[in-house]
């Protein structure tokens, strides 16, 4: 499974602690993240994290991966004290809804999703990818 990580500045330490706690599960999957989040998670946990651009650029790159069904799970620890999300973050969450990508925006939901991932409850994503890929190729 391909897992994307994002965290607002005030939530980066929480993301690191989360990734330490669940490193046994996360290490079995491909992880990508925005630049700063990816760096702190990788440096602290030793997990292999593909890093995208900093700031909005990384969120936009992850959004494009979601749009092409290349992301299976999004963990986005956002700071609810911020007035609103920026456009790239709003787009990312909207694309997750459109493409049926499980998404957590806080640690409680992230724990539920990662535990489900560890049990195999998200294996339906593999079937979903196969069906969409077959449908796309059959159209031509």
Instruction: Tell me the β content.
Output: 5-15%
In round numbers, the mean pLDDT is 90
Return the structural class.
Answer: alpha/beta
CATH class: Alpha Beta
Shape: globular
In CATH, the homologous superfamily goes by the name Methylglyoxal synthase-like domain
State the end-to-end CA separation: 28 Å
How many strands?
A: 5
**Numbering strands along the chain, what is their spatial order in the largest sheet?**
3-2-1-4-5
The assigned CATH architecture is: 3-Layer(aba) Sandwich
The proportion of residues forming helix, as a percent range, comes to: 55-70%
Question: In terms of quaternary structure, what is this?
Answer: single chain
Describe this entry's structure for a reader.
Residues 135-140 have low confidence and may be disordered. It is built from 7 helices and 5 strands. Helix 4 (56-67) packs parallel to helix 5 (87-98). The chain has 140 residues and is α/β, with parallel strands linked by helices. Strands 3-2-1-4-5 form a 5-stranded parallel sheet, with helices on both faces. The longest helix is centred in the C-terminal third of the chain and has 15 residues, at 124-138. The two termini are 28 Å apart. The protein has one domain (2-138): 3-Layer(aba) Sandwich (Rossmann fold), CATH 3.40.50.1380.
Task: Give a short summary of the structure.
With 140 residues, this protein is α/β, with parallel strands linked by helices. The chain has helices at 12-21, 23-26, 35-45, 56-67, 87-98, 107-119, 124-138, and strands spanning 2-7, 30-33, 49-51, 73-77, 103-104.
């Amino acid at each position: 499974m391909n897992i994307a990580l994002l965290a607002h500045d005030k939530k980066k330490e929480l993301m690191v602690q989360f990734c330490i706690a669940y490193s046994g599960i996360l290490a079995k999957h491909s992880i990508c993240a925005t630049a700063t989040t990816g760096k702190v998670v990788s440096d602290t946990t030793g997990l292999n994290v593909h890093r995208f651009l900093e700031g909005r650029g990384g969120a936009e790159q992850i959004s494009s991966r979601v749009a092409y069904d290349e992301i299976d799970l999004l963990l986005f620890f956002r700071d609810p004290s911020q007035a609103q999300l920026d456009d790239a973050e709003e787009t990312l969450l909207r694309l997750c809804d459109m493409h049926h990508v499980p998404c957590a925006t806080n640690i409680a939901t992230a724990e539920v999703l990662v535990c489900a991932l560890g049990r195999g409850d998200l294996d339906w994503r593999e079937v979903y990818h196969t069906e969409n890929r077959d449908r796309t190729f059959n159209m031509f």
